[in-house]
C-alpha cells in the first residue's frame, strides 16, 4: 500500500477553488471538510440569532456576516471559516480584502467567534484556541452539543458542553457550561442563554 499525502494548497488556490464553498476551510495548506449537517447549521443559526438580538438591543456597532473567511496574518496557507463570527463595523474600513471578498485579516475587527464542534473537534479545541488568542479575539465559544471532544477537555462523563474562552492578558481563560447552566458572556452581559435553548431537534 502506498501513502498519498494530501495536496497542499496556498491561500490563493483555496480562494480560487473553494472560496464560495462553505463546506471547506484551509489549515496549514490542508483542505478540511467541516462536514456540516442540518443540526450543525441549525445550532449555528440559533447562536447567531441570539447574539444578534443582544447586538441590536445593546446598540452595538457590530454585525454577523452570513459567510466569512478569516485569514490569520501569520499563517500563509490558512483560511478559517467560523460557524459564527461577530465583526466590529468600525474596523471594516481597515480590512484590505473586505470590499472585494468576505475575508477578514485583522483580529481587531473580530469581537467574537463561535465554533459548533463536529468531527474535526481537535481543530476547535486546540489549533483554533491558539489561533484566535494570537489574533486577540476577545471571546471564543466552543459549542459541543454532542459531547464529541475527549475527556481531557469536557470531562467524564462526556456531555453537552459550551466552553466560553475569554481573552485575558493574551491567553484564554476557559469556563465550561453544561445543561441547565446559564452561560455568561463578558461581551454580552445581558445574554440569557442555556444549552437547552440551542440544542438541535
UniProtKB/TrEMBL annotation:
Gene3D superfamilies: tt1808, chain A
Pfam families named among the record's database cross-references: Uma2
Matches recorded under InterPro entries: Nuclease_put_TT1808, Restrct_endonuc-II-like, Uma2
Domain Putative restriction endonuclease residue range list: 11-195
The protein's name: Putative restriction endonuclease domain-containing protein
Native organism: Chlorogloeopsis fritschii PCC 6912
